[in-house]
Design a protein that fits this description.
Blueprint (H helix, E strand, L loop, with lengths): L1 H26 L9 E7 L2 E5 L14 E4 L2 E8 L6 E3 L6 E4 L3 E5 L4 E4 L5 E2 L5 E2 L6 E6 L13 E2 L7 E2 L6 E9 L7 E9 L5 E12 L2 E8 L2 E2 L5 E4 L16 E3 L8 E13 L4 E7 L5 E8 L4 E6 L4 E7 L1 E3 L7 E4 L2 E3 L8 E3 L8 E4 L1 E3 L5 H34 L3
Parallel strand pairs: 14-21
Antiparallel strand pairs: 1-4, 2-3, 5-31, 6-30, 7-8, 7-11, 7-26, 9-10, 11-12, 11-25, 13-23, 14-22, 15-16, 16-17, 17-18, 17-19, 20-21, 23-24, 24-25, 26-29, 27-28
Helix pairs in contact: 1-2
Length: 408
């Protein structure tokens, strides 16, 4: 009789645990990146009243006779099915389209989360504003190159950061010179260049036809002739530039504002001399003025690109993601965070879009994967299970009462 009582108690206790888990799922139905939990039951252990016997002669064998002694929690598992992305338009909100986790750190320890509701901190760090933990990834070097083989570190988007000016050192001239031009015909092409202080200047190349298939190029900066500089362009009889016969000299100019001397290599290799209108332009020059970081963008692979006031863009870093051999082994620590355990395996860190980690939805958040219809159904089933186990206890109590009454 006592076996049924204790079996009923185990049923009550464990159905209550299941109800607790269901309640927590429903409470987190709107929690960003929340992953629902699921309770599974298993029978506990058995009292063997009679063991099994093997067949002997003409007699068959007998099965064991066992009485179950209740049930227990088999597991409380985290279900990692993806939640639906919800568009927010916030450039620091991210949802993962895969199995990856964001990596955040308190400075001593790393944690993992599916909650991509981040913001820019006072120091420019990309942070989780609820905990202050910094988002980890890889920073680009001064050339904008990212090395994902290096350890991850806190990402920084330093609004107002200055990009130093760069003096022009290469200029590319493109276009066509009219092959029917008479000797002495002059055309010119101006462009804006920059000195080492970031000050802009107007550099003009002037082309004068000096012979058949031959042009002489001179230059001036801000209307002042570059003394002693000229180059000779020679074209083949099919109108294509002839580098072997041309003489191209570097342009050396000393600005009058205290900037370092300019040493510019002109490139005329894309020019032609064909019949038709003359059209000459400067397609490229590599100088630029000083600029400050005014905005940024993030790609689906997590690459953060800074937008500067001088019109240039530069890669600042890349968000890292982690995945695990057994994500179900991760330990929840609250605040939408997980940490590694002995059964999750170590974090496998890589960039978004690699190794099954998934790309990023930028400007969106992953919603909870809790299905209210399923949870309410499970709640009813759990309630009925609880009621049935309570009936076991009351019925067993009535049977015990009958035994007590036999003494009267």
């Amino acid at each position: 009789m006592m076996r049924s009582l204790f079996a009923g108690v185990s049923g009550l206790r464990n159905h209550q645990v299941r109800m607790d888990v269901i309640a927590n799922n429903i409470a987190n139905v709107n929690t960003t990146g929340y992953k629902m939990a699921r309770v599974t039951f298993q029978d506990l252990f058995y009292q063997t009243l009679k063991g099994a016997s093997a067949p002997q002669g003409s007699m068959g064998g007998t099965d064991p006779i066992q009485v179950g002694l209740g049930m227990t929690i088999g597991g409380i598992n985290t279900i990692y099915t993806p939640g639906n992305p919800q568009y927010t338009g916030n450039p620091t909100d991210f949802a993962i389209q895969g199995d990856g986790f964001f990596i955040v750190s308190d400075g001593n320890k790393s944690y993992f989360t599916r909650d991509g509701a981040f913001s820019i901190g006072l120091d420019g760090s990309l942070v989780n504003p609820n905990t202050g933990y910094k988002v980890l990834g890889w920073r680009a070097n001064v050339s904008g190159i990212i090395d994902t083989s290096m350890p991850v570190e806190p990402l920084v988007i330093p609004k107002g950061q200055q990009m130093m000016a760069k003096a022009t050192s290469n200029v590319r001239v493109v276009g066509n010179l009219d092959a029917q031009s008479n000797t002495g015909t002059i055309f010119s092409a101006p462009t804006t260049i920059y000195d080492s202080l970031g000050v802009s200047h107007t550099l003009r190349f002037t082309f004068e036809k000096t012979g058949i298939n031959q042009w002489t190029v001179t230059a001036d900066m801000d209307g002042i002739s570059v003394t002693g500089w000229s180059s000779t362009l020679v074209f083949r009889d099919d109108g294509v530039y002839d580098p072997a016969s041309s003489i191209i000299n570097p342009v050396s100019i000393t600005p009058t504002n205290g900037a370092a001397p300019l040493n510019i290599t002109p490139d005329f290799s894309n020019m032609t001399q064909l019949g038709g209108d003359t059209s000459i332009s400067i397609s490229y020059q590599d100088g630029y003025p000083m600029g400050s970081l005014t905005d940024f963008t993030v790609s689906e692979t997590g690459v953060i690109t800074g937008i500067y006031s001088n019109g240039l863009n530069q890669v600042l870093g890349q968000i890292a993601l982690a995945n695990f051999g057994n994500p179900g082994g991760l330990t929840r620590v609250g605040y939408n965070l997980f940490e590694v355990s002995v059964n999750s395996g170590e974090a496998l860190i890589g960039y978004p879009g690699s190794g099954g980690r998934g790309n990023l939805y930028v400007g969106a958040l992953e919603m909870s994967n809790v299905d209210l219809a399923s949870e309410f159904t499970n709640m009813i089933i759990t309630q009925r299970g609880f009621q049935a186990n309570s009936r076991i206890i009351t019925t067993s109590d009535e049977m015990l009462q009958e035994l007590v009454n036999l003494k009267r």
